Amino acid sequence: MTNETQPRRRGPVLFGLAAAALLAGLAGIYVIGGADGNRQEAGACSGALARAASIGAAAQGEVAAFLPATKAQSLSDLAFLAPDGSQMTLADFRGRTVLLNLWATWCAPCRKEMPALDRLQAELGDEDFEVVTVSVDQGSPDKPKAFLSEIGVASLAFYSDPTMGIFHKVRSYGRAPGLPTTLLVDGEGCEIGALMGPAEWDSPDALALIRAAMEKGRAAMEDGKK
Fold it and tell me: What's the CA gap between 152 and 133, in Å, rounded?
């Protein structure tokens, strides 16, 4: 009878240990979002919320699905690989407005919108703005690189995350139910808003939205210097 009852006793114990481990893991994930972390993030990104609210009217036509941020969210620690394969984060683009696009070659809408993103980078890309398209294809980067070459992408740099870590992290913020997902980020690494799904990113509507965000960002920087 002892041998028969022991396994029954271990079940709840193992479940309790697993639950404790899960809670500990969640605590580890959300530790930065504790009381102090929330206040610091809200303070650092409060300006982005104001800009998000002010450009909401520009989200129309081809970018009508753009959702302005409604809470302070720093994205500066999102990590991925640079074109040379080295590790980097969105914080490396500090001072620039960034359109962060998550995509994969197995995502048909992603493939369709990539030429428009390339044209957007050619049109607006400079020291104040960059389109950062991050491939989340797993395995070798050869496949996504070959695809970009085949469609004639000339202005976009190749960023990647074969671990899909960036996708899962953005998804935990409620911003990536699938691919493609695109986030507009200010020069402090704070979310201005997001669009889930494809869009014509080189359309007049998209250009107007992005330019509005950039103008608000420049105005904020000028105010900060005073």
Answer: 15
Q: What is the pLDDT of residues 28-58, one digit of tens each?
A: 322 233 344 445 555 689 999 999 999 999 9
Domain covering 46-225 assigned CATH 3.40.30.10 in the classification: yes
Radius of gyration of the chain (CA): 21
Q: What is the pTM of this model?
A: 0.81
What lies within 8 Å, CB to CB, of 71 at 6+ separation is 49
Strand, coil or helix: 185: strand
pLDDT single digits (tens) 158-190? 999 999 999 999 999 999 999 999 999 999 999
Nearest residue to 75 via CA among 64, 95, 89: 89
Locate the domains of the chain by residue range: 1-33, 46-225
CA-wise closest residue to 56 among 195, 198, 203: 195
